Automatic annotation (TrEMBL):
It comes from the Bacteria. It comes from Pseudomonas jilinensis. Pfam families: Cyclase. The lineage of its organism: Bacteria, Pseudomonadati, Pseudomonadota, Gammaproteobacteria, Pseudomonadales. GO terms for biological process: L-tryptophan catabolic process to kynurenine. GO terms for molecular function: arylformamidase activity. Signal peptide: none annotated. InterPro entries: KFase/CYL (IPR007325), KFase_sf (IPR037175). Gene3D superfamilies: Putative cyclase. This is Cyclase.
Length: 339
């Protein structure tokens, strides 16, 4: 056993001592069939932004747009390369490219190895850096092998994003339309407001459902044409109040399998003042660290949300596997909704 004590309100151990999937365990074959039952018109929606949005690094100064390049091939580049250069009989023209991609720059999944916390799980009176289910920083989620400032060698040997990919992440999902009720104003949505909105729209969350929050933030991002203004981003659209204990309790009780939004961090970041203790990202701590709930961020939900509004529906089939990229702590994703 890796831990003697688990964090208050966590589900560590409940899906097995070595579990790395968390609430994805609730995305069962029955949930896939429930999702398939929502496909009635044969329409599909791409739920990804173009991956070079938001543009620049105003949203997060540590994350940069994708950089694509190609390799050399002899004295040429391997791009529009005519194979007759190596054999005059060949007629093929070939292009290859590579990409340097910050895995959480645009439409993304957070792996369970993305955010952990300091917690005294072994009872020695000293808090240690841990992730979901007690997997340890430095041992299971390894840092750079060499000196402190080395940039390479990071590897999530446990809780890597490939574990999520291997489940195929498909099943019934639903959308809560915060934008319809809050407009494009910056609104902190707590438990009471969320329940009011869900009640007004007749939205019911059942265990295993994948929950999407449409706030309109991705529309604001798209409207800025890859040249985002930091102030506008900070002041736009609804965000969840991660400091509201009732909201966190609802996430625990609802049984939702994953939580997704079209905004930056699902929750307000920075969060409301939490006094002298606590996580900077309390909803991240609650979901990724305590409950094993993967978070989707910066998704593009607009066209789906408009369709659901017009048709008086809120459920759909979602398929959203991340890249099967071993050891990564996040991944770009091109999710597909089917109705
Ligand atoms: C923030 O950086 C605020 O959130 P995330 O890392 O989940 O994108």
């Amino acid at each position: 056993m890796r831990w003697k004590h688990r964090p208050e309100g966590s589900n560590w151990g409940e899906f097995g001592p070595d579990d790395e999937l968390g609430r994805l365990n609730l995305l069962t074959p029955d949930k896939v069939l429930q999702g398939v039952a929502e496909v009635r018109e044969g329409r599909s929606f791409c739920l990804s932004l173009p991956l070079d949005y938001p543009g620049g690094n105003a949203l997060n100064r540590l994350r940069h747009p994708p950089r694509r390049f190609t390799s050399g091939r002899g004295d040429k580049l391997n791009y529009n390369f005519e194979l007759q250069r190596i054999n005059p009989a060949f007629t093929d023209v070939v292009s290859d490219d590579a990409v340097l991609l910050y895995t959480q720059y645009s439409t993304q999944w957070d792996a369970l190895s993305h955010v952990g916390a300091l917690f005294d799980a072994d009872g020695d009176g000293v808090a240690e850096p841990l992730y979901y289910n007690g997997w340890r920083a430095g041992e299971h989620i390894r840092g750079p092998a060499g000196h402190e400032d080395a940039l390479e060698g990071v590897n999530a040997e446990r809780l890597g994003i490939e574990k999520m990919a291997e489940t195929a992440v498909s099943g019934r999902a639903l959308l809560i339309d915060l934008q319809k009720h809050c407009g494009h104003e910056r609104v902190l949505v707590d438990h009471a407001r969320l329940q009011q909105i869900m009640l007004a729209d007749g939205v019911v969350v059942e265990p295993g459902d994948m929950v999407c929050l449409y706030t309109g933030f991705a529309d604001v991002v798209l409207g800025m044409g890859r040249q985002p203004d930091a102030k506008t981003l900070e002041n736009s659209c609804a965000v969840l109040d991660g400091r509201d204990p009732a909201l966190l309790q609802w996430i625990s009780d609802s049984g939702l399998s994953v939580l997704i939004a079209d905004n930056y961090a699902v929750e307000a970041y920075p969060a409301r003042d939490g006094g002298s203790c606590c996580a900077a990202l309390p909803l991240h701590e609650h979901c990724l660290f305590k409950l094993g709930i993967h978070l989707g961020e910066l998704w593009y939900l607009t066209e789906l949300a408009h369709y659901l509004r017009q048709s008086g529906r809120y459920r759909f089939l979602l398929s959203a596997p991340p890249l099967r990229l071993p050891g990564a702590v996040g991944s770009p994703v091109s999710p597909v909704a089917l109705v």
